[in-house]
Design brief:
The chain has 492 residues and is an alpha/beta fold. The chain is built from 15 helices and 10 strands.
Length: 492
């Protein structure tokens, strides 16, 4: 059955023709009678506004009709799903109880299949028609809203009153003054020579640690007590239940607290990134032990810097970290960027394989979405963190996956890998992520990163379970109904 094409809604040609005729008439009229031209323009603006208001009322009625048709269609789809489920269940029961040598399905079953296929084709055609109507309706409503806003601005702007032109005065000849004597010529200055710069340009004001003195202050704070740990929860969608935390490093220099994007370049120049990872992993283990004492099943992850993989003995120290606390198996999770997972050598891959089952693995900071779920599962990766902007915005052809995003999430889940959308900062992005079947999300719209209290980090493993850490899980909000405008936005 061929899907009928939706009728395209276009602006009518009559108002545009009338407007063109009005312009051709008003331009000569404005030169002859300005006041009459102003009155005519005002009248045309009022008439145009009335016509636009009438068309918008018509579109509102059409929108309500489309909404009702979509509601009826959704009910039919629910019934169709129920019938399909019953049919599949009956087929499974018949196949389970039937004899292997039973005869093929009779004519009644074939007729039922044909009727079922015809119903599916009919519903598909109706969905195609409604989707086309909704897209065209959304585009026309948006254009009409812009026209109305533009007309309101023009109506509020006061029109300049025409000033009657006075008769030109007769031009009287004026005496021509005598020419002054020519000034004495001065010698011309020699041309300026451009001298090339031999010194480095000054540091930009945004670079807080460009000078050696500022970098020394940062290193001093890092070697002291300036390193702090912030936790940001990872929640499920759509329930928004906290299932994990990510440990974020913050460096306090004086009264200011800086993110890794600011102080990591300085630590890389001074060779301190591995020391940062070691100190952060020790604190991550302490936080994971604390959460276990509270009875929380949440894990704690930390993103390693790529330079630590090449530090001798670093990966072996991870095994010793977990062996000292067997209760931390699976609760401490390390994340590596996509480029690091792709460039592992044989020794690094063998050391990471030896940590499977004791430390969780996550892939983050992707440069494209061309994932191989089977290869990632063989590495022991259980989560893939992708920025929400990469999932919701159009990507370059090189960064796009070979399959649709919905199928990508499904293929990752089939391999035992859960997709985490990071950097979710707007509430309007949450419904789109839910439509993509993204299971986990993280961002400021759910909870901002919060600092961990010092008494939690200073607690010894043998001590009693301390009080709960500061980043308490946010309460689960009630389910929200999405308005019809969101449906129109996604259809457009």
């Amino acid at each position: 059955m061929k899907t009928p094409k939706a009728r395209t809604i276009r602006p009518r040609g009559t108002p545009w023709i009338l407007g063109l005729i009005g312009v051709l008439v008003l331009v000569p009229l404005a030169l002859i009678l300005p006041l009459a031209a102003v009155a005519a323009v005002s009248g045309l603006a009022i008439v145009g506004g009335a016509l636009l208001w009438r068309r918008l009322s018509t579109f509102a009625v059409a929108q309500e009709v489309v909404s009702k048709e979509i509601g009826v269609l959704s009910q039919r789809l629910v019934k169709l799903e129920a019938v399909t489920a019953a049919l599949i269940q009956s087929r499974m029961q018949d196949s389970a109880t039937a004899d292997p040598s039973a005869r093929p399905p009779d004519e009644a079953d074939k007729a039922l299949d044909a009727r079922f296929d015809a119903g599916i084709e009919e519903v598909t055609a109706e969905i195609g028609i409604l989707s086309g109507i909704v897209r065209e309706l959304a585009a026309v409503v948006a254009s009409q809203d812009g026209d109305i806003a533009r007309l309101r601005v023009q109506a509020q702007t006061p029109q300049p009153k025409p000033v009657p032109q006075a008769a030109p005065e007769p031009v009287r000849p004026r005496p021509v003054p005598a020419a002054p004597p020519p000034p004495e010529t001065e010698p011309a200055a020699p041309p300026m020579r451009l001298v090339p710069r031999t010194t480095l340009p000054a540091a930009r004001p945004s670079d807080h640690f460009a000078t050696d003195a500022d970098a020394a202050l940062l290193i001093e704070a890092f070697d002291g007590e300036g390193l702090e740990v912030f936790l940001q929860p990872v929640v499920t969608l759509p329930q928004r239940k906290v299932v994990a935390y990510e440990a974020l490093a913050r460096l306090k220099v004086g009264d200011a607290v800086y993110a890794p994007e600011t102080f990591l370049p300085v630590l890389e120049r001074h060779g301190r990134t591995t020391a940062l990872d070691r100190r952060m992993l020790q604190r991550v283990a302490t936080i994971a032990r604390h959460l276990q004492g509270r009875g929380s099943p949440a894990s704690v992850s930390y993103s390693l810097t790529p330079h630590s993989l090449f530090e001798p003995g670093f990966l072996r120290s991870l095994g010793r970290l977990v062996s000292e606390g067997p209760e931390l198996a699976g609760r401490v999770v390390i994340a590596l960027p996509q480029s690091s997972w792709r460039s592992l050598d044989a020794e690094q891959a063998a050391l990471l394989a030896g940590l499977r089952g004791r430390i969780g693995f996550v892939m983050d900071r992707p440069i494209d979405l061309r994932f191989d779920p089977t290869a990632l599962a063989e590495r022991g990766i259980t989560q893939v963190k992708v920025a929400a902007a990469l999932l919701l915005r159009p990507l370059d052809r090189e960064a796009r996956p070979d399959i649709a995003l919905e199928d990508l999430v499904t293929s990752l889940a089939r391999a035992g890998i859960r997709l985490v959308a990071t950097g979710v900062e707007a509430e309007t992005e949450v419904p789109d992520l839910i439509d993509l079947d993204v299971p986990l999300a993280q961002g400021g719209v759910f909870a901002a990163p919060r600092a961990v209290r010092s008494e939690v980090l200073s607690a010894s493993p043998e001590a009693a379970p301390p009080p709960p850490p500061s980043p308490d899980p946010p309460p689960s909000p009630p389910p929200q109904r999405r308005p019809f405008r969101d449906f129109l936005r996604r259809a457009g």
